[in-house]
Inverse folding.
């Protein structure tokens, strides 16, 4: 004779409860499906159109002012007389603190400035000399130190 269960199995009762809950959820979902399927995308399109209209109105600016008239400038041309005049001597934010004839002397000057806390770099000039360049706010101190 097979054994009989006198006490209820808790796992079995939980399974029955889960099955009953899933059936009630299915019934609730079937009520929601009465709405036509095209209504969801239609609502999304209407919302996007409303957002586009609001953004268009808020980002639309007033009329731009007319541009100012431009005067034509007559170009002036300066004829270079030397090779040094043809090459630009512009180093941006850097200024020449010293000029050296040899690379070894320039390196010594650069290290001397570095020991004083002044950052320096080297640049070759068109005439063969080497320029020691520092930032504009440190030029006076560098020239005093090297000078």
């Amino acid at each position: 004779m097979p054994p009989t269960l006198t006490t209820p199995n808790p796992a079995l009762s939980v399974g029955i409860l889960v099955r009953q809950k899933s059936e009630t959820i299915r019934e609730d979902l079937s009520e929601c499906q009465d709405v036509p399927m095209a209504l969801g995308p239609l609502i999304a399109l209407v919302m996007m159109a409303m957002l586009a209209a609001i953004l268009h109105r808020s980002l639309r600016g007033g009329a731009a002012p007319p541009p100012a008239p431009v005067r034509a400038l007559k170009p002036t041309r300066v004829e270079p007389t030397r090779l040094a005049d043809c090459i630009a001597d512009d180093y941006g934010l850097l200024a020449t603190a010293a000029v050296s004839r040899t690379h070894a002397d320039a390196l010594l000057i650069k290290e001397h400035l570095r020991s004083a806390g002044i950052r320096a770099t080297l640049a070759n000039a068109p005439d063969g000399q080497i320029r020691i360049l520092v930032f504009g706010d440190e030029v006076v101190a560098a020239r005093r130190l090297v000078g």
